[in-house]
Amino acid sequence: MIGKLTGRLDYRSEDHVLIDVGGVGYLVYCSDRTLAALPGPGQVVALYTDLVVREDLMQLFGFPTLLEKEWHRLLMGVQGVGAKASLAILGALGAEGVSRAIMLGDINAIKAAKGIGPKTAQRVVIELKDKAPGVMAMGGTLSAAMGTAPAAPEGEVLDTAPAAARKPAPPARPLGSAAAQSDALSALTNLGYSPSDAAGAVARAAADAPEADAAALIRAALKALAPKG
C-alpha cells in the first residue's frame, strides 16, 4: 500500500498530477481544491495517498491531509459514491466542510458538488452521520500533525515561489479550527453528552463562528444543548 508520496511535481492535468519520486513517476488523481493548492512544476509536493485496486485498474488518489484522506475512505463506502464523486464532494467543501454538512444534515451542501444528485447526497448524510463524530474527534490530532510543513528530501528545496505566481487555492479554514472542534467535542462527551448530539452542536457552533477557539465553541454548544423552556 502506498500511503504517502513526496517528490517533485512533473506536470499537472485537469484531474491528476505526475509526481517524480526518485526517478519513478506516480500518477495521482486529486480534487480541484487540492490541485489548485499545489505549487508549480519542478517544486516539491507531499500528498497522502489511497490506492484503489480493481480487476482491470489501479489508481492513486492524493490528499493534502490525513483528515481528508479519511473522509475519502468513508465517502467511498456510501452506495453510489465512487472515487470521482468523493473527490467532487471534497473539492467543493473541503474536509471540515464535509464534517459540518453531514453533522448538520445539510443535504444541499453535499448536493452542490458536481455530479452529486439529491438521492446520493441524502445517502451520504444518513450513512455517515454516526461516523462523523469520530472523524471530528480525530481532527485535532491530525491538524497538529499537518501544521508542520513537510521537509524537503535531501538536496531539494521546498516551493518558495511568490504566491502571486501560483494558481490561487480555494479559501481554506485554519488548521486550528479542526483542533478547536476536536477539543470541544471531547469536552462535551466527557460531560455526558452523546457523541452525535455533541458533534451536531459543535458543528453548528463552528458554522456560526469559524474562527472560534475551543472555549467559545463549548459555550455555544452548551447553550444549544441546554433544555428549552
UniProtKB/TrEMBL annotation:
It is found in: Cytoplasm. It holds the Pfam family HHH_5. Residues 1-64 are annotated as: Domain I. One of its GO terms (molecular function) is DNA helicase activity. Gene3D superfamilies: 5' to 3' exonuclease, C-terminal subdomain, DNA helicase RuvA subunit, C-terminal domain, Nucleic acid-binding proteins. Residues 1-62 form the DNA helicase Holliday junction RuvA type domain. Residues 180-226 form the Holliday junction DNA helicase RuvA C-terminal domain. Keywords: Cytoplasm, DNA damage, DNA recombination, DNA repair, DNA-binding, Hydrolase. The keyword Hydrolase applies. Homotetramer. Forms an RuvA(8)-RuvB(12)-Holliday junction (HJ) complex. HJ DNA is sandwiched between 2 RuvA tetramers; dsDNA enters through RuvA and exits via RuvB. An RuvB hexamer assembles on each DNA strand where it exits the tetramer. Each RuvB hexamer is contacted by two RuvA subunits (via domain III) on 2 adjacent RuvB subunits; this complex drives branch migration. In the full resolvosome a probable DNA-RuvA(4)-RuvB(12)-RuvC(2) complex forms which resolves the HJ. The RuvA-RuvB-RuvC complex processes Holliday junction (HJ) DNA during genetic recombination and DNA repair, while the RuvA-RuvB complex plays an important role in the rescue of blocked DNA replication forks via replication fork reversal (RFR). RuvA specifically binds to HJ cruciform DNA, conferring on it an open structure. The RuvB hexamer acts as an ATP-dependent pump, pulling dsDNA into and through the RuvAB complex. HJ branch migration allows RuvC to scan DNA until it finds its consensus sequence, where it cleaves and resolves the cruciform DNA. Belongs to the RuvA family. This is Holliday junction branch migration complex subunit RuvA.
